[in-house]
Amino acid sequence: MSAFLEFDQVSHAYSQQTVVDTMSFTLVEGEIGCLLGSSGCGKTTVLRCLAGFEPIRAGSIRLAGQTLSLPGHQVPAHARQIGMVFQDYALFPHLTVGDNVAFGLRRWSRAERLRRVASLLDLVGLAGLARSYPHELSGGQQQRVALARALAPRPRLLLLDEPFSNLDVDLRSRLSAEVRAILKQENTTAILVTHDQHEAFAMADRVGVMQAGRLLQWAAPYTLYHQPASRFVADFIGQGVFLPGVVTGPACIETEIGEFCGAVPVPFDVGQRVEVLLRPDDVQHDDASSRKAVVESKVFRGSEFHYTLALPSGRRVLAEVPSHHDHPVGEPIGIRLEMDHLIAFPAH
Amino acid sequence: MPVSSLRWSVTAFLIALLTLVPVLVILSAIASPDPAIVDHLMQHTLPRLLVNTFWLMAGVGLGVLLLGVPLAWLVALYDFPGRRFFNWALMLPMAMPAYVLAFSQLGLFDFTGPFQTFLRERFGDSSWVPSIRSTPGVILVMTLAFYPYVYLLARNAFATMGRRALEVGASLGYSQRAGFLRVALPMARPWIAGGLTLALMETLADFGTVAIFNYDAFTAAIYKAWFSLFSLPTAKQLASLLILLVFVLVWFEQRSRGRRAYTQAGRGGRAARLPLKGVAGWVAAAWAALVLTLAFLLPFAQLCLWAWRAMEGEWTGELLGYVGRSLLIALIAAGLVTALALALAFAVRRAPYGMTPLWARLATLGYAVPGTVLAVGVFVPVAALDNFLIDGLGRWLPEGTTAVFKGTLFVMLLAYAARFLAVGHSAVAAAMYRITRTQEECARMLGLTGWRLVLALHLPLLRGGLLTAVLMVFVDVMKEMPITLMTRPFGWDTLAVRIFSLTSEGDWERAALPAVAIVLAGLLPVILLSRQKESL
């Protein structure tokens, strides 16, 4: 499939400070992309460049073959047919829900407009609230109105800026699944910006990790988790610790808790010192194992315990253990590693 | 209701009486009109008053919108040469009372003024210049004096949501101009309506400008009825009609909000302003500069020039008397009003249910009531009280006593308190609002109660609000003309009264000195206001 959105070598700066640094990614039509990063990494600026609110310094932005932004030239925001869901929703307080949703449909005929508004409110589960005012709705409902308003004119691309950050955790996970379903049903190409990894993984087909204006990796969530391209991405995505080791073979590394061999060769020379990433789900509890680690602290998560274990060397590993294995702090327990491929980076 | 909250509720009620009594006294004139007076008014004065008032309201209303809204939009959203300066400087006209602007504009643009004199010397003729002593002239002066209300409120509305509103509009396919008309303007409407209402209230309440222009308006007619025709009942009847107009205005403003809750659409503000490049930028700057020059710089320069010339006269010592009386009465009134405002704020805090909030609202209604109306409304019951006292206690009073409270500072202070309580209250209540209930509860749990709680928690946190209240009321009283004029004790002439008597003789030059003093005092709250906005 050919790229629908091409974000090509784009840079952006506020006066002297570079905010987006030669960034590139592409998105296929109908896909949902996500930019993930901590605050200040430049992800919102990327959205604003896409929306046409910010000019770019270098590179180009193309959508469906049409060039939207070049340095010194840009299609104005209102002519891009790109919709946006703002972080604070930015609903119009003086208009009803129905009028908010209809706001971008002024060129449609009245009958079509009414039909579109009704079907969208139905889609987002707010049928019957068309005559309410935004302030009469809950946070989650306002969020859905904002989504419906942005989707109404059938934008070629939908931008979502931290769409769930104002909602509580429960609602957040439920809505992110719902919104993904809605976007897929409308076959909308979308880009989402968030600092919440769960949100990114729940919503997106492709996720990019950003740091200081650079895109470190742009990949499917599974790839990102299991094949992080850099130590930063490995650290940022999911939990885990790094354990020092020495390469002993094409796919084998020796550490203080034994030698592991993965299914895929590691790109290191034999004898090179590396650090291996251990996810909590890589460390299994096994009473039969001769390798012991001492329970240093534990967090009860309901379905499992989250143990922090101290190795004989004093280094710590994390382990997720089914909750019927309840061990007191200070007790040595047996552990076993289980992973099908190794993630390692050169030691520093 | 616990005893303590009952006590607070009663306090609030007593404070509300300050406003309620004069208003009800005036309104009683509608309930029981005197047929002879009404007939006389209908035949001679009323039709002209109503027509004049209509044109004044329509003209000033349109004028302040046309000046205030575009300036607010420019300053809030665009970058052009001098924007940072104009941002606060466009509020400067608030420092100049309308009656000061009125006589300096008259002095500037009348037949004998420098403008027409220049035209005659240069071109030999100035008869084509329309006379400023006309309805459009009054409208123009009041527009220049009152547009800052609309400017200020609209600018804040646009600054907090304008840019974001445009972005939402753009993401839904609206161009910048369509975004302004279809998104930003409707969203800012309640603020614009609020500013417009304030400007129109000032227009209705204005006494000095219409007196100087000899324009027949209600306020001037009330004054004339009382002090030229010595018919207090006629003044009362006229005041009752004026207060009805004010209530219509208040009702209209409340209604225009309707069911819609207006909050800002998003937390914008971070985004940069859009630069106005080249000619557009200079046109914007020139437009703002023209308004500022006409509304403040030019008249103020003229005042200073006159004041400088008048300074050479011998009566500057006399001026000190006016300044002293103005300062004294303004200080006393500011202290009194702030104390009342503090009591009211505490009452609402301690007894937030039941009638207390209603009393607080009624107590602050006085700001909408024109000074001329309040003067009559306060004087009538005080005179009745005096008569009652003299009838009942006559034998204990000195021989020949005709007045107890009448003609004392007490009457003037009552009227000031009713008129300016809202000014003090808004400052104190805003500060009180920032003290959360949990802060109070926390202090209580740490063992602070009663006065110790007030001293340790409230007063330090309210200090800024109290100072603001004192300053705002102080300056408002300094500028106040009709109440002072109509209720002052004999010989108690203040700066504003001095300006009135000098301008009624057309002596602009000598009126300039007290006017400059008032404008300088008036600059204080404007500076305060611009500081506050800067820190937002």
Would you spell out the secondary-structure blueprint of this structure?
The complex is a heterodimer of chains A (348) and B (536).
Chain A: E1 5-14, E2 17-27, E3 32-36, H1 43-51, E4 58-63, E5 66-70, E6 73-74, E7 82-85, H2 97-102, H3 110-123, H4 139-151, E8 157-161, H5 169-185, E9 190-194, H6 197-203, E10 206-211, E11 214-219, H7 221-226, H8 231-236, E12 241-249, E13 252-255, E14 258-261, E15 273-278, E16 283-285, E17 292-300, E18 304-310, E19 316-322, E20 332-337, E21 344-346
Parallel strand pairs in A: 3-9, 3-10, 7-8, 8-9
Antiparallel strand pairs in A: 1-2, 1-4, 4-5, 5-6, 10-11, 12-13, 12-15, 13-14, 15-21, 16-20, 17-18, 17-20, 18-19
Helix pairs in contact in A: 3-4, 5-6
Chain B: H1 3-31, H2 35-44, H3 46-77, E1 78-79, H4 83-89, H5 98-109, H6 114-123, H7 135-171, H8 176-205, H9 208-213, H10 218-227, H11 232-257, E2 274-275, H12 278-311, H13 316-350, H14 356-363, H15 371-393, H16 409-434, H17 437-445, H18 450-479, H19 482-487, H20 495-504, H21 508-535
Parallel strand pairs in B: 1-2
Helix pairs in contact in B: 1-11, 1-13, 1-14, 1-15, 3-7, 3-8, 5-7, 5-12, 5-21, 7-8, 8-11, 10-11, 11-15, 12-21, 13-16, 13-18, 15-16, 16-18, 18-21, 20-21
Low-confidence stretches of chain A: none
CATH fold annotation of the largest domain in chain A:
Rossmann fold
Number of domains of chain A: 2
Q: What kind of oligomer do you see?
A: heterodimer
Termini Cα gap of chain A? 40 Å
Q: What is the number of E strands of chain A?
A: 21
- What's the alpha carbon Rg of chain A, rounded to whole Å? 24 Å
Percent of residues in β-strands of chain B: under 5%
Which structural class should the secondary elements of chain B be placed in? mainly alpha
Can you give the helix content of chain B as a percent range? over 70%
| CATH architectural designation of the largest domain in chain A | 3-Layer(aba) Sandwich
State the secondary-structure class of chain A.
Answer: alpha+beta
What name goes with the CATH superfamily of the largest domain in chain B?
Answer: MetI-like
Low-confidence stretches of chain B: 264-269
Assigned CATH architecture of the largest domain in chain B: Orthogonal Bundle
